[in-house]
Amino acid sequence: MDTAVVAEGLEKRYDGTTALAGVTLSVERGEVFALIGPNGAGKTTLVRALTGTTEPDSGSARVLEAAPSAVDRDRLGVLPQSFSPPDRLTARELVAYYAGLYDDHRDPEAVLADVGLANADDTWYENLSGGQQRRVCVGTALVNDPDVLFLDEPTTGIDPAGRRTVWRLIEDLADSGTTVFLTTHDMAEAERLADRVGLLADGELVARGTPAGLVADHAGSSRLTIETPADQTAFEDLPFPTATRGSEVVVREVSPADIGRVVDYLEQRGIDYSGLSWAEPDLEDVYLELADETELERTDGTALARAGETA
Ligand SMILES: Nc1ncnc2c1ncn2[C@@H]1O[C@H](COP(=O)(O)OP(=O)(O)OP(=O)(O)O)[C@@H](O)[C@H]1O
User: From atom 30 of ligand 1, which residue's Cα is the shortest distance away?
Assistant: First the structure.
């Protein structure tokens, strides 16, 4: 398979902040690649470096075998994280306007219908809801039927049904051969859409792989979560590993067939519980395993800073 997007050793610093600390990755043609990671990890900076809207300090990027700023614009679609089209154009006028910027483009009416805006197409952009505005923006990014589409948090602010509309749209584009590079905080979105996922933390790509591969490598086993005032010691005779997490006890390596055994154990020992839930590990567990430390450091830091302020 040919490569559509390549980053080699990309570094970018802003004053004292390292946004990208040497990122190397490649995305094959027709692949959907999802970039996940905490706030401030460098995702938008990486998208900007790959689309030619920021210059890296070092390293290089290629899209469709060209430097990002030299890619044929007809072949590239970009939805930036912050995108403010003119407020006093209707959804229909906006999509038609962006269509007019390209030699070849899709039918704007069909694009509006695809993003679920066929009924709001005569409303000024400024009067659309946040989610409707984001749908218009998604429409403008793909109106030229690009070969490579960068979507920086495409479904932020879009309601659950609308999110599924956008997901189906992305799936259809991928089925027709479009390469999609997506950033998202929605693990269900990454897991559903992506062939491969990359996890960026502090400007470094700390893990990459298929969603299933990442889950197998980093997310641990299935778990039964029990809401209970009892702690782990009440569970020590269970033949499964357990851990106390706040007001819950988490029992690991429990298959669906074992749930009955655990419930019998609770009943026989008279252990109080108010809820039970069983879950397979998923991409969210991968994220929590690999990126949670960044959050803990950050929140600890904030708490300490606050303590210092009030002391
Ligand atoms: N133009 C800029 N000037 C100064 N610092 C910047 C600039 N752009 C990004 N940064 C910093 O670089 C780091 C990475 O930011 P970036 O926006 O790439 O993160 P992100 O992963 O996209 O975050 P989010 O999930 O919140 O969108 C942050 O610390 C941010 O403050």
Answer: 40
Interval between CA 6 and ligand 1 midpoint (Å): 21
Judged by DSSP in three states, 181 sits in strand
- 174 contacts 33 by C-beta, under 8 angstroms: no
Report if residue 78 sits inside a domain: yes
Tell me: do 36 and 183 sit in the same domain: yes
Assessment of whether the complete model's pTM goes beyond 0.95: no
252 CB-near residues (< 8 Å, 6+ apart): 220, 221, 222, 223, 240, 241, 242, 243
CA of 45 to the centre of ligand 1 (A): 6
Q: How far is CA 197 from the centre of its chain?
A: 9
100 CB near ligand 1 (under 6 Å): no
**Contact present, 247 and 227 (Cβ < 8 Å):** yes
> Is 43 touching ligand 1 by the criterion CB < 6 Å?
yes
In order of 19, 52, 203, 303, the CA distances from 57 in angstroms are 11, 13, 13, 33
Total number of domains constituting the chain: 2
ipTM: 0.98
Give me the phi and psi of 133, to 5 degrees please. -60, -40
pLDDT class of 277 with cuts at 50, 70, 90: very high
Mutual angle of helices 91-99 and 130-142, in 10-degree steps: 20
CATH code where residue 58 lies: 3.40.50.300
Looking at the structure, do residues 13 and 80 belong to the same domain, yes or no?
yes
Separation of alpha carbons 98 and 81, rounded Å:
17
Q: How confident is the model at residue 4 (pLDDT cuts 50, 70, 90)?
A: very high
